[in-house]
Amino acid sequence: MSSDTAVGRDEQLVRSGVRRAGRRLIPLLILLYFVNYLDRVNIGFAGPNGMNEELGLSATMFGVAAGVFFIGYLLLEVPSNLLLHRFGARRWIARILVTWGIVATAMAFTPNPTVLIILRFLLGVAEAGFFPGIILYLTYWFPAGQRARMTAWFMTAVPISTALGAIVSSLIIAHGDGWFGLSGWRVMFLVEGIPAILLAVVVWFLLTDRPSVATWMPQDERDALERAVAAEGAEVSDAGPKSVLGALRSPRVLALSWVYFGVVYGLYALSFFLPTIVKGFAAQYGSTFTTVQQGLITAVPYAVGLVAMILWTRRSANPTVRVAVPALVGGLFIPIALYMSNPWLAMVAVTICACGVLAALPGFWSLPTAYLTGAAAAAGIGLINSLGNLSGFVAPYVTGALSDATGDNRLGMWVVGAAMISAAIVTWLLRSTRGRSRS
Fold first, then answer.
1. CA of 385: how far to CAs of 122, 130, 236, 261, 380, in Å?
2. Domain spanning 11-430: which superfamily?
3. Domain limits of the chain?
4. Under a CB-based contact definition with an 8 Å cutoff, are residues 259 and 423 in contact?
5. Tell me, what DSSP letter sits at residue 341?
6. HSE (side-chain half, CA atoms, 13 Å) at 140
7. Which single residue of 22, 116, 242, 252 has CA 20 to 30 Å from 403?
8. Which of 118-122, 232-236, 277-281, 343-347 shows the lowest per-residue confidence on average (mean pLDDT)?
9. Per-residue model confidence as pLDDT tens digits over 61-111
10. What is the pTM of this model?
C-alpha cells in the first residue's frame, strides 16, 4: 500500500470514527449540559415568580444569590479539571452529577436568603469542572477540524435548556404550586434537580474515556482517531505551554479569559434577568402576560439563537471572525432593547443579542484548544472557564444593583453591551499575536 493510499485510508477511518463517536457521545453530552445549565439558571425563573417575594429578596440580594454560584465555581475549576485529566471523564463527571443533583434538589427547601446563598455557593462547588471537563474531553475524541462542529452541537444545550427550560419551569411553577405542600418555585427546584442524580448512573455505564477503550468502535477506527488526536497534540505542544504553571501564567490564556468573560457576561445577564425584564413589560408598556406566556416569550430569543449558533459555526471558518463578529453584534443590540417603543420590537433586539452571544460561544473554544494540550490544556481551559464565569457573579450583581439604584434595567444593559464589545475587540487583537509560552 502506498503512503498516499495509507493516508487516504486513515482520513476515511477518522471521518467514520468521528461520525460514530458523535452519534454515541454528543447526544448524551447535550442532555448532561441541558440539565447542568437549567439547574444553574432556573433561579432566574424562580425569582420573579414567588421566590423573591416569599424570601424577601431585593434585586441586589437576588443578584448575589444568583451570582454567588460562580465564586464556588471559580475556586475549584482548575483542580477539578486536573482531577478529570487524572482519573478519567466517566468517573469524574458521574461524581459531579451526583453532588450537584443533591444540592440542586435541596434548594427546594430553602427557608431564608442566607440558606439560599449558601446553597447557591455549594451548587457552584459541586458543578465545578463539568463544562471545562467536557471541553477537555472533546479534545480526546475529535481532531480540531471536527471539534468546533462537535462543540457547537454540545453547546446547543444552552439555548435548548433556556428556551425549553423557560417553558418547563414556567409550567411547573404555574401548575405545581401546592405539590408536596410546596410553593411552585420550590417544586421547580425539586423536579429539575433530581435528573442530575439519575444521569450519574447513565454516565457511569455509557461514557467512554478515550477512543482506545471504546469497545463499541471498530479497532481500526479507534487507532486512526488516537493517531490523529495524538499528532495534533504534538503540534500544539510545540507551540503552547508545556506545563500546568505555564498555562496558568500565559498572557494569551489570560486574554482569552477576558474574551470569555465578556461573552458569558451577556449570556448570564440574559439568563438571569430576561424573565424579570419580560415581567416588567407590564409597567413599561402596559402589556401583561401570564406566567406561562412569560416563559414562552423568554424562550423565543434562545430558539432563534439555537439556529444562529448552528448556521454560524458552519459558515464561518475563521476563528477570529467566528467569535468577534457575533460578540460585537450582541453587544450593540442588548442595550437597544430597552429603548424600543413596544415589547415586540424590544424582543427583536433581545433576540439579535441572544443570537450574537450563542453564535460566539462554540467558536470561542476552538481558540484555547488550538493552543493547549495535555495537563496544560486541563489547567488552561479550567482557568479560562473559571475566570470567564466570574461574569456569572458580576453580571447579576451589577445588573441588580444598578436596577435598584436607578429604578430600571437600562444602565445594567449598557454595561452588558460594553463587556461584549470589549470581548470582540480583544479577540480581534489576539489574531495577530502568538502569545506562546514554552514553560
1. 18, 10, 20, 8, 8
2. MFS general substrate transporter like domains (1.20.1250.20)
3. 11-430
4. yes
5. S
6. 23
7. 116
8. 232-236
9. 887 887 788 787 778 877 887 888 788 888 899 999 999 999 999 988 988
10. 0.73
